[in-house]
Amino acid sequence: MATHTAHSEIGLTRKRIEDERFLTGHGNYIDDIVFDGMAYAAILRSPHAHAELRGIDTDDAARSPGVLTVLTGKDQDAAGIAPLPPTERVNEHSGEPFAYTPYPPLATDRVRHVGQPVALVVARSLAEAWDAAERIRVDYAPLPAVTTAAAALADGAAQLSDDIPGNIVHQWQTGDAAATGRAFDDAAHVARLTVYNHRIVTNPMETRGAIGIYDGDTGDYTLHLSSQSLHVGRDNIAAALGIPKERLRFVAPDVGGGFGTKNFSYVEQILTLWAARTVRLPVKWINDRGAGFVSDHQARDHHAEAALALDAEGHFLALRIGSWANLGAYLCGSSARVPLYQYMALPNTVYRIPALRLTIGAVTTNTVPIGVTRGPGFAESVNILERLIDRAAREMAIDRADIRRRNLIPASAMPYKNVSGTTIDSGNFNANLDAALEHARGFEDRRRDSEARGLRRGLGFAYHIKGTGGAPEEKVEIRFDDDDTVTLTTGTQSIGQGHETTFPQIVAGRLGVPFDRVGYRQGDTAIISKGGGHGSSRSTYMGGTAIYLATEKIIEKGRRIAARALEAADADIEFADGQFRVGGTDRALDLFAVARIARESGLQSGDGDIGLDTAQEFIRKAMTYPNGCHIAEVEIDPETGAVAVVRYAAVDDYGEIINPMVARGQVHGAIAQGIGQALMEHAVYEESTGQLLSASFMDYAMPRAADLPAFDVTFNGTTCTTNPLGVKGCGEAGAVAAYPAVASAIGDAIASLNGDADAGNFTGPATPERIWRAMNGMAPRRSG
């Protein structure tokens, strides 16, 4: 019996079909949707980071023109509205519960961060809703605010909640303390580094929004929203509303980016549905950009003290890290789990390190809650180790590339189980490093040219790796329609990655049908019962594997049906290029003909599907590990400290690639985000008040095209062994690699001026002032 081989559609560079409607203004985003009689919501947010709520006067607001209702925290209990729970509440390693404060949709007795919702107004128009919101009078009693992990842990620090003793959400240790201690005692050299991965605001192009609908006759709810995780979010919001999940439908039209910000649930989603139930009308709420700065989940904010023990030849002996994550005012989604799972899964990244000791903690503060963004946990570990390796290389006078070569896990060792117990299935790290360094050829000539122009040039590199997979379950359905087309329905959610193109490519390639015969549906909990959404670059691995397994079933069912129709034995039927053929003959039926025969005869398979229609669930047992080496070159003006990234190259292993152009676009976007964090992005809080000082694009710098060079991206994949497609995620890698690569280049440029081994250890983004101080041997200003 011949086995089916993938059609050339897989691996083909095909233009994204969704781009035509996006570029011609035919996208369908939340604010494009209008329902008859729709009302509008405005949310009054706290101007204080920490304060008691002594009273709220809504009388003037309630009497304002067009107002339908005004809701406050006092109304929640009577309405049966519960706090929004985090999805992860226990340290999976120790079984200890996290300490956290319930997150009420509207504040009741206390506000805990600037931007926390205090009241909601629903009116006939958005202008009327905002006019009324401005008439609400709130009596606040300000309390001391805490904005950093260090301040939360300091002696005499204000205790922010009785639920969180010492402001500590969790603290845990792992690794072999004795073996690590012996390695440090025997080390020829110990490199030490303090690393702060500063807080950022993610800022997707489309702000968050929702439209809530309540059906008073059935008691059913529908929420149209901008989200990248529907099924999990629906379950969380249903729990807060006190209703069965079957009574709540989530629908996401086009989603204008997420980058992790739209992974988890938000209290505004509860409020919009509650408001719709209250006024018995559809209610639209759209976050504006200013509110997004103080209400969208922020990211990073991770402080670490790290040490690397080495022998005299530069071989790594042990790694010791003590770290604290600032999780903000409330636990959201799985944010408390990120340091305990993703950060500790790959602390040694791609290097052989025999011994490890990690101390991992997390605190609460009066800042916007932390969620996730590209590479959560993994970005922090890669940044720590790559910068620590640069420090060790300079202190030991070993070439930075050579010290990495001596310690990279060889391809012959794959699969490799690291000291944390994580098994990396595939990769050729040395080959990627060497290929990336080819892009640095001629650097010394370029450095001399820069110096002739009064500039300092630096070369930096970083090797990245992360685990992808996200939520462990995924589901797809493939249906054959009467017009000889195929409809693919997925539970994962596109937020701009091109799923409308790449997923049908997998179907077309596996089944040998024309690409334009494959339709695609997503973004609706009513059309598919399960889905893990999009997070952790999981979609092609999880959704693609489910598609692969579904097509295997379809081919096997089709073979049996074709054998019956062609009067042959099942074993004699071959399938290739969309045709079922009796081996050695010209007798054949195409896939659509077999689907029609099956549908018309009402043949039912053991899984309950009719004909060739197939639903398929996939539960992962392992992650995938995309990796690669990125090279950056910077020029620095020593008179001003201004940094320009002038060259950037990446050699990446994403396994097998479904559509190289789409993958390359994902890499470009992630690199831009990583460079943005390296050079300019920073969520800065005033320590004494908890006010976000960088609360608009006037104060929060985002990278623009002029800030970025052309990116040279090369794919050097090794086939992943944890899924039948051989794919690895690609959407986060650039954000993981770019920050330490650019920092490494800056350190090299500074060291070329003053030979400082600590050159790359600046805190926060590489703003001109910070770099000017570093180049002139001055201590950096304190950074929040």
Q: Give me the Rg, rounded.
A: 28 Å
- The span between the termini is 65 Å
User: Approximately what portion of the residues adopt beta-strand conformation?
Assistant: 15-25%
Write down the overall mean pLDDT.
94
- Please state the structural category: alpha+beta
**Overall 3D shape:** globular
Instruction: Sketch the major β-sheet.
Output: 7 strands, mixed
Total of DSSP H or I helical runs spanning 4+ residues = 20
User: What percent of residues adopt helix (DSSP H or I)?
Assistant: 25-40%
Model regions low in confidence, pLDDT < 50 over at least 5 residues: 1-6
Oligomerization state: single chain
| Order of neighbouring strands in the sheet with most strands | 3-5-1-12-9-10-11
Task: Write down how many β-strands occur, each being a DSSP E stretch of 2 or more residues.
Answer: 28
Could you please describe the fold and organization of this structure?
With 784 residues, this protein is α+β, with helices and mostly antiparallel strands. It is built from 20 helices and 28 strands. α18 packs across α19. The protein is globular and about 80 Å long. The termini are far apart. Residues 1-6 have low confidence and may be disordered.
